[in-house]
Write a structure and sequence with these properties.
alpha/beta; two-stranded antiparallel sheet
């Protein structure tokens, strides 16, 4: 597995990480045994960046990851997040970034993960009611105490990133980035590159849509939140599946899968970008790993830009409530 650095002076991690969210929620039912086997295989194949969050499950995903890495902590660069508050019943309770909550959430994550230190701790969503300086200030204190090693932000606006970075160096910014979610190219990517902050791309396969596995809305399993996602319903689905068909045709000519082509495109956008495709099955993990060795020509990159230019996808990234929490 190739390696990449999160920012010029940041930590070195595998060029592809593993997003663990879907193992516990949102994308249909999970299988803990297969999920743990997938994590173990990822580590064996050189993937060390594991990404989770306290809200996934809720809370169950951190426990799952903790069990998976209990006897191999030294092989893992562990990233988790706080800020999206959920109740024990799964209800969404808003976003918090006040110092007391930052500390409370960190302590709870450490317990669930069964570790003494979190390698990369992200603010999952920006609390618009709390100055970012206060939130990052408390994160910096946690770092001084050895509870976290590096600070991160997720879905933060450029001005917020600059203000946070002035309080304490931010190691990584995580936002959605793929062939059909290219908003970050506008001002977020230029900002983090100017500041020397690494970039972690979540949903690099378009929440699985760019894999070509989904042919119709009914293909999403029962209980899968994508059944009600703006991009996967109604006319938006029909418009977006046409784009995927174009991608599939190009992948067939290249003798690879659509997922590998989409992932290779993300990797080709800069050596400072680390995608974290999520999967809960070993089969798809192996396919994702193979994408790291897929080199795209200039002609192929230009063709992908033609097929899926910025703004090509029909529908918003989230429903209205979710959209209100991004770019904070």
């Amino acid at each position: 597995m190739q390696r990449r650095r999160l920012g010029p002076n940041g930590p070195e991690v595998s060029a592809i990480g593993l997003g663990c969210m879907g193992m516990s929620e949102f994308y249909g039912t999970g299988d803990d045994a297969e999920s743990i086997a997938t994590i173990h295989l990822a580590l064996e194949r050189g993937i060390d960046l594991l990404d989770t969050a306290d809200m996934y499950g809720p809370f169950k995903n951190e426990e799952l990851v903790g069990r998976a890495i209990a006897d191999r902590r030294d092989q893992v660069f562990l990233a988790t997040k706080f800020g999206n508050v959920r109740g024990q019943g799964g209800e969404f309770l808003g976003v918090r970034g006040d110092p007391a909550y930052v500390r409370e959430a960190c302590e709870a994550s450490l317990r669930r993960l069964g570790v003494e230190t979190i390698d990369l701790y992200y603010q999952h969503r920006v609390d618009r009611n709390v100055p970012i300086e206060d939130t990052v200030g408390e994160m910096a204190r946690l770092r001084e105490e050895g509870k976290i090693r590096f600070l991160g932000l997720s879905e933060a606006a450029p001005d917020t990133i600059r203000r946070a970075h002035a309080v304490h160096p931010i190691t990584a910014l995580q936002t959605e980035y793929s062939l059909w979610s290219r908003d970050a190219e506008g001002d977020v990517l230029p900002t983090v590159r100017e500041l020397g902050i690494g970039y972690v791309a979540y949903s690099p396969l378009g929440r699985g849509f760019l894999t070509g596995q989904i042919k119709r809305p009914e293909d999403f399993p029962e209980g899968d939140t994508r059944r009600n996602h703006p991009r996967f319903t109604g006319d938006n689905f029909n418009k977006n599946i046409a784009l995927v068909h174009e991608l599939e045709g190009m992948a067939e000519a290249r003798n690879c899968t659509a997922a590998q082509l989409a992932l290779a495109w993300v990797l080709a956008q800069g050596g400072d970008i680390v995608p974290i495709p999520g999967t809960k099955r070993r089969k798809y993990l192996e396919q994702n790993i193979a994408a790291a060795d897929l080199t795209l020509s200039g002609q192929e990159l230009r063709r992908l830009d033609e097929i899926l230019p910025r703004g090509a996808a029909a529908g918003d990234r989230y429903h209205a409530v979710g959209m209100a929490t991004i770019n904070g």
